[in-house]
């Protein structure tokens, strides 16, 4: 499947603190107020300076999906809808000043206006370099021996994925990745992809992906069930054909530190798989830390029945490694 696009670096004033969806200036949306809370292990903090409105741009030209939708290149007709929102630089408004000058003859005359001054908008770039070794964040200790640690600062969380060349962590863990339309997406940060670019001609393809988010719901069980269903449908829909999603029973699990959580694992069957799609996939969603209105969630999905697939047991092992960031 194709990797979800990222919506740029995380600026809290630009996104709904629960879903991660962009809301500043959007229909019916409003920017969270200072002091607002979000569901995670850490505390939500609001920047003091007002933020500029984002402009919506596709982040991966040529991918099968985006806003606006783009046709897939030859041989590729796959992937979820994705979106990218970046903060664009504000163009400087040209100021034309009329200068009144007294001529030597004693009569006023008007000078020609000076040429306008403009600045060219530029795209922001991530300053964080990609990992240079096979193990990311070597200063953090994984709870799964021999694995590496991925971080999700927006949620005050970390988790583990297998170490080695197959897994690639987003060099900017604050980037928001999204499945689905911008007004109702499933989003995540602290993203790690497995076998990125495995599909010839599709550099954004991957065999598995993981990340942390939050979703609204009255309890962890409801959130886990609803999120697993929604994520599976958004990630594996092809040409309007929704996949067949079979949810497993909710599992009560315990995270590091004795924190209770609920995990739901779904089996997914694609009705119209693309050339590089697997026919079957697995989705593992873990919900925890419910406050009665929302839960923090861990999202993991992986193609099945293909060479080098991440098995469901490993996928669940990844989700259960979710824990609070070290102080």
Structural commentary:
- By secondary structure, the chain is mainly beta.
- It contains two helices and 16 strands.
- The strands form four sheets. Strands 7, 8, 9, 10, 11, 12, 13, 14 and 15 form a nine-stranded antiparallel beta sheet that branches.
- Strand 3 and strand 4 form a beta hairpin.
- The protein is globular and about 45 Å long.
- About 31% of the residues have low confidence.
Residue-averaged pLDDT, rounded? 72
Q: How many individual β-strands?
A: 16
Percent of residues in helices comes to under 10%
Largest sheet composition: 9 strands, antiparallel
User: What is the global morphology?
Assistant: globular
- Element pattern in H and E: EEEEEEEEEEHEEEEEHE
Measure the end-to-end span.
36 Å
Structural class: mainly beta
How many separate helices? 2
- Which value, in Å, is the CA radius of gyration? 23 Å
Which stretches are low in confidence, meaning pLDDT under 50 for 5 or more residues running? Answer: 25-36, 43-133
Task: Tell me the strand percentage band.
Answer: 25-35%
Tell me briefly what this model is:
The chain is mainly beta.
